[in-house]
Design a protein that fits this description.
Radius of gyration of chain A: 18 Å
Number of helices of chain A: 11
Number of strands of chain B: 16
CATH superfamily of the largest domain in chain B: Thiamin diphosphate (ThDP)-binding fold, Pyr/PP domains
Strand order of the largest sheet of chain A: 2-1-3-4-6-5-7-8
Strand content of chain B: 15-25%
Order of helices and strands of chain A: HEHEHEHHEHEHEHHEEHH
Largest sheet of chain B: 7 strands, mixed
Number of strands of chain A: 8
Distance between the termini of chain A: 32 Å
Largest sheet of chain A: 8 strands, mixed
CATH topology of chain A: Rossmann fold
Shape of chain B: globular
Largest interface: A-B, 45 and 42 residues
CATH class of chain A: Alpha Beta
CATH class of the largest domain in chain B: Alpha Beta
Number of helices of chain B: 14
Helix content of chain A: 25-40%
Strand content of chain A: 5-15%
Oligomer: heterodimer
Number of domains of chain B: 2
Structural class of chain A: alpha/beta
CATH topology of the largest domain in chain B: Rossmann fold
Distance between the termini of chain B: 53 Å
Number of domains of chain A: 1
Radius of gyration of chain B: 21 Å
Shape of chain A: globular
């Protein structure tokens, strides 16, 4: 397959590979899938475990793909992708990509074992985690990637507990620790950066991992038209970052000159609206600790 | 008959591995668990030495073993996996995925009991817990049958009328680790019997498809189609067995193998390797003039209800030996068999013998006592419906 870098909208095909689905208005996850498939398609095999995307796009007879696609068992995206690739290899199928789109819970919680196994084998697959920071499909329950202070239906915010109390698992670091050849973080708020990373993943000969922040208007509580802007602000305020792990090095792709206001970012979202100064301070301390490490250890 | 086979002295696990090599799967994904391990070790060696041209996926769990097989089958690959016991239960979620998606994956299950108490030895609690998974299930009596059934399994499962996954069960250690003289078929004969797998039920770059999709209002029809196709399986088994016999000279009696049932006053039904013990006891008791018979239930799905009812209609007492127990009721095979028998006009007296749990041996003496009890029942003696064999409690 002719691989060329896709770095902006002008490089994208007008063909749609993922359309007609029933996701909410302003869905960040569906945008992540649609853009990635435009970079990779049409010769792709897609596997999607239980998540909003499978629930809204695989409904027989109105399936939402013009490419090959299948639902994967929830915990097994990595294994299904490996199986597809091994089958394709054994049958002599060439010039294709095998890509999976799992959510944050499907990646960091129930799917982490199969993902680890896939990276360990090094099969040529692209694993995309679209991170909307909770189990949205089932009604906004806490996942291992739900950030501190977030109100979900299983971490209700009240007098005693300020919503989720854990910190977001460092999936990027966990994946990198496997010695993966290429991993990256992205946000749908910075689509050019995301497209470029999907392009790079497509050129990998082994397993690659893209972790894309995909804001959820329904679960986070913001107007549907603000999805991309929220995805951008998450990066600008330093609570998310755009980075790559390549050939053993962490590389920061975007260093905000000055962080935008964490408080502003949080207040835009219903899930954080209950937070007081103390909690916002804790979130700020967490961000600063992370960035201290980034600036010290990563290539900037 | 084509090329003759070759006699080899191998274990049940090795017989399965040899059969897998002969069946030429494209992808093997497996996770090791005792007592299945020798099978996957041998297959790994075949892949290493090039005698089996397949991709071997080292997965991190049984759940992923079946999920990877699912992915491979979804692009039209012939696949194999093997497991046992806890491993089968760990992958249980994926079994209906595979059967519902109509992928003809073949799996060997080395029958082993379930924890706790943690135990390594054989009974049928693992596979019988998965009767409702939509898979075909066969139980083998010896290594030869295990080998032959792996080869037949692909033919049956991949038949366009069937397209249903196939679980080949053999008793852990008793069969997996016991050495027997086995007739190893010639590759060219297996190739004639089992052509490469071709299907339209796959993802295809030239004709993209969605497989393993979701259904709301159509769910019931999808599931009932599985049932309607499963009902065709007995006929396909018969056809395939006939052809197999023509090429390899062996057959196993279809869904149920009957032994001395025609004039028997009491018939015992068994699954798997314990059948050998029962057959020896039937021979001895027949020498003494006792009218006992034996039926080996080979397939638990599709369930041979008509065959079992036919045997029941011709005898006075029928025993079902379950190497499992659905706690709170009775043996699982018994429940199935009695449901098949209850429709006939004058059903025999039916007794459920529960034995061999966790690998406890069922000796010839135990077996003789089972037949004695059945003969007493045939004479009209009353007693418990469910009886424990060689158990230290009552």
């Amino acid at each position: 397959m002719d691989e060329k870098m896709v770095t902006n909208a002008g490089d994208l095909t007008n063909t749609e590979f993922f359309y007609g689905h029933r996701a909410c208005a302003g869905c960040g996850g569906s945008l992540a899938l649609r853009l990635a498939m435009k970079v990779l398609g049409p010769r792709i095999f897609v596997a999607i475990p239980a998540n909003c995307m499978s629930a809204t796009s695989f409904l027989y007879p109105q399936v939402s793909f013009s490419v090959n696609a299948m639902i994967s068992p929830f915990p097994a995206t990595g294994a299904v992708l490996s199986g597809i690739e091994a089958g394709a290899r054994a049958l002599g199928i060439r010039d294709h990509h095998v890509v999976g789109f799992a959510g944050d819970g499907g990646t960091a919680d129930i799917g982490i074992q199969a993902l680890s196994g896939a990276i360990d084998r090094g099969d040529r697959i692209i694993y995309v985690c679209y991170d909307n920071e909770a189990y949205m499909n089932t009604g906004i329950q806490k996942s291992g990637l739900t950030p501190y202070g977030s109100r979900t239906t299983t971490t209700p915010a009240g007098k005693n507990i300020p919503g989720a109390v854990g910190r977001k698992k460092d999936m990027f670091g966990i994946v990198a620790a496997h010695g993966i050849k290429y991993a990256a973080t992205a946000s749908i708020g910075y689509p050019e950066d995301y497209l470029r990373k999907i392009s790079k993943a497509a050129m990998c000969k082994t397993t690659s991992y893209i972790h894309v922040l995909a804001p959820c208007s329904t679960g986070w509580g913001f107007p549907a038209e603000e999805t991309v802007d929220i995805g951008r602000e998450a990066v600008d305020c330093g609570l998310w970052y755009l980075a790559e792990y390549e050939k053993g090095d962490f590389i920061l792709n975007r260093k905000p000159k000055e962080f935008s206001s964490i408080s502003e970012y949080l207040k835009r979202q219903a899930r954080f609206r209950h937070l007081g100064e103390k909690e916002i301070e804790e979130i700020t301390v967490g961000r600063d600790e992370k960035w201290k490490k980034i600036m010290k250890n990563w290539r900037v | 008959m084509g090329m003759p086979g070759r006699k080899v002295f191998i274990s049940g696990d090795e017989a399965v591995a040899e059969a897998v090599r002969l069946a030429r799967p494209n992808v093997i994904s497996a996770y090791p668990i005792t007592p299945q391990t020798v099978t996957v070790e041998r297959i790994s060696e075949f892949v290493e030495d090039g005698s089996l041209k397949a991709e071997y996926l080292h997965v991190e769990s049984e759940h992923s073993a079946m999920s990877a097989a699912l992915g491979a089958a979804a692009v039209g690959a012939r696949t194999f996996t093997a497991t046992s016991s806890q491993g089968l239960l760990y992958m249980a979620e994926t079994l209906p995925y595979v059967s519902g998606a109509r992928f003809p994956i073949v799996m060997m299950n080395a029958n082993r009991t379930l924890a706790t108490p943690w135990a390594l030895l054989s009974d049928h609690r693992d596979s019988l817990s998965q009767l409702d998974s939509g898979w075909i299930q066969v139980y083998c009596e010896n290594a030869q049958e295990a080998m032959d059934m792996i080869i037949q399994a692909y033919r049956i499962a991949e038949d366009p009328r069937v397209m249903t996954p196939f679980m080949v069960n053999l008793d852990g250690f008793i069969l997996t680790h016991t050495y027997e003289m086995v007739d190893l078929p010639a590759q060219e004969n297996v190739d004639r019997f089992l052509p490469p797998y071709r299907t339209a039920n796959r993802m295809d770059l030239d004709d993209p498809k969605t497989v393993c999709y979701a259904a709301l209002d159509d769910y019931m029809e999808f599931h009932l189609k599985q049932e309607l196709d499963m009902r065709k399986v007995p006929g396909v088994i018969e056809e395939v067995e006939l052809e197999f016999k023509g090429i390899f000279g062996r057959s196993y009696g279809g869904l149920v193998e009957k032994y001395c049932c025609e004039d028997a006053e009491a018939v015992l039904m068994t699954l798997g390797s314990v059948t050998g013990t029962a057959r020896a006891v039937v021979d001895a008791m027949r020498m003494e003039g006792k009218m006992v018979g034996l039926a080996k239930i080979r397939f638990m799905r599709p369930f041979p209800a008509a065959e079992i009812a036919g045997i029941a209609g011709n005898t006075k007492a029928m025993g079902i030996l379950d190497r499992d127990l659905s706690v709170g009721y009775e043996g699982i095979v018994f429940t199935n068999a009695r449901s098949a028998v209850c429709e006939i006009e004058s059903p025999p007296r039916m007794i459920n013998f529960i034995g061999g749990l966790g690998g406890r041996n069922i000796s010839k003496e135990d077996m003789r006592q089972i037949f004695d009890q059945l003969m007493q029942a045939a004479r009209g003696e009353q007693g418990e419906r469910v009886r424990f064999v060689n158990a230290r409690c009552e």
